[in-house]
TrEMBL record, chain B:
One of its GO terms (cellular component) is nucleolus. Residues 31-234 form the Brix domain. Belongs to the RPF2 family. GO terms for biological process: maturation of LSU-rRNA from tricistronic rRNA transcript (SSU-rRNA, 5.8S rRNA, LSU-rRNA); ribosomal large subunit assembly. InterPro entries: Brix, Rpf2. Keywords: Nucleus. Signal peptide: none annotated. Its main location: nucleus. This is Ribosome production factor 2 homolog. GO terms for molecular function: rRNA binding. It comes from Acanthochromis polyacanthus (spiny chromis). The keyword Flavoprotein does not apply. It is found in: Nucleus, Nucleolus.
Amino acid sequence: MAACSVEQLLAKAEQEEAEKLKSISVHKELDLDFDVGNLLACDKNRVESRDFREQKKEDFLRSLARDNTQLLINEIWKLPTERVEEAIVAKLPEPSTPLPREKPPPKPRPPTKWEQFAKLKGIQKKKKTNLVWDENAKEWRRRWGYKRANDDTKEWLIEVPETADPNEDQFAKRVKAKKERVAKNELNRLRNIARAQKVKVPGVGLTSKAQQSKDELSRAVSVAKTSTASMGRFQDRLPKEKAPKNQGKKRKFEPLIGDFSSEKQRQLELLKVMDSKKPKLDITKAVNKQMREDDREEAAAKYKKGAGKKGRKGNMSGKGKGKGGKGKGGKAGGGGKKKGKPGKH
Amino acid sequence: MTQLDGVVKPKSKRSKRFLESRAPKLTEDVKSAMIMKGGNTSLTVTQALKDIYSLKKPNAVLYKKKNITRPFEDSTSLEFFSKKTDCSLFLFGSHNKKRPNNFIFGRLFDFHVLDMIELGIEKYVSLSDIKTSKCPEGTKPMLVFAGEAFDTDNDHKRLKSLLIDFFRGPTVSAVRLAGLEHVLHFTALEGKIYMRSYRSLLKKSGCRTPRIELEEIGPSFDFVLRRTHLASDDLYKLAHRQPKALKPKKKKNISHDAFGTKFGRVHMQKQDLSKLQTRKMKGLKKRRGEVVVEDQDVQAAKVAKVDG
């Protein structure tokens, strides 16, 4: 009796199990493709159009959807779960469907000049604190930025060093130095960017043209040569390179208190020239100069005449003639006036 | 803009954060969609656009004004809009006599059009017509595609990929089991595509996995496939290229045998076995006296031979 009841119990238990499993099992010809990372299920089975047309569309679709969703839920329930703040959470794997990106992947930025050097030398970046103790203000201030600590442009009293010019503005000097540092930093930053993007930047002294002229190139060479720490004094010249002309001082002055005897000599000569009645005029030079000027005027007049005539071909009126007459008269007067000048001297 | 990226530095932290959110990243966030109307729209189209906007709510922009453009002919205005709003998916709805109730689903790569698929709406039931309680906004939906066309036909394959991209929502590492409510079901049958949106109710079954019952909530569409503009194969491959940093690093020198034991190889230099230090056994030690005796014997043997 006991044995029978045990068998019966076992059979009952099995039946119940089967029923339970039936409620969540779905029979499909082909297994579905699951991408649990995307909560995606793809059913490749043929959808029978006959069934579709027989039943009502919505019910057919709903039952199909129910079956597929059940299978997807079964898959999701197989995943490992954990409890996060009173909710049971299933850990999803990575999505396996390949989908196109929004934007192309970012390219790693090439290292800057300093970064290359630091890597070469093995210099590590030292982490610095954001706040520094400022002795003057007796408080913690930023290391850089607005209201920074130890800002040397903001000092109210600067001692003039002994070697400096007393008329120099020390405050302005500090501000100028800071501006130069900022500009240099900006230039280096832009150069790093240009190097990263491989944009050709012309060197100092050169314009971004394809062909440079000879004197532009020579200017660029001289700029490059003088841009060393000692202003180009120790730079060797190329074998056939000539020394640049116009390099010395532009004007030369005698020292104020120099050679007294030569100064005396010069002043006596000057007085002698002023006393003498001889005209201090070189006749040949003056005549040549005058002849040259006359030639130039004639050429200019011819040119104007020629251009004027071409313009006046259109309207041959009294006005034109009047203009020409005036012009000639004016020029004659000018010439006459000029001739009078050397006579005055 | 890309030329001036590094040159023009952002002046405030807010603008810097904005630029960083728009810059290309290793792992990308959710794709957002722009939903816009064409030159002429019908009531069906406007309502349908609103419904899809509510499905895609936080990651979508719905434009109110009409845009008189034709995406299949000229996509420059679409690209301009995507650059302005940083959206890489779009849905363009229009209506004219030749193509009534027209939807164009599309996606962009690097602000240029990648794929565009035109679907015509044959039957539409809106969200408001189906009077049941809806899912909360922003729930990640479960997507189900049924029908062999989604695996065999090229156009349908691209459409499937586009719909997954459109509706999938943010990629998450874990999902709350009770929160799996929304189901979007797409069926490809007889040249048409049926889209239904259900709410899943998890009923008790005997075991741990619940039994699903579905209740229709959302908009239901009957689409018909019209024109397509698909990207060329190489552009499509280029769009799929993943950065090297994302590939999982392979651990070398690990192998498993049939029982699951983990093996690794250790490489040694060549050993001189004669100099190998083994256990010392006193009995086998060579003694000096023995050696001498052996030599003498050998010599005696040699002498004997000569005589003989």
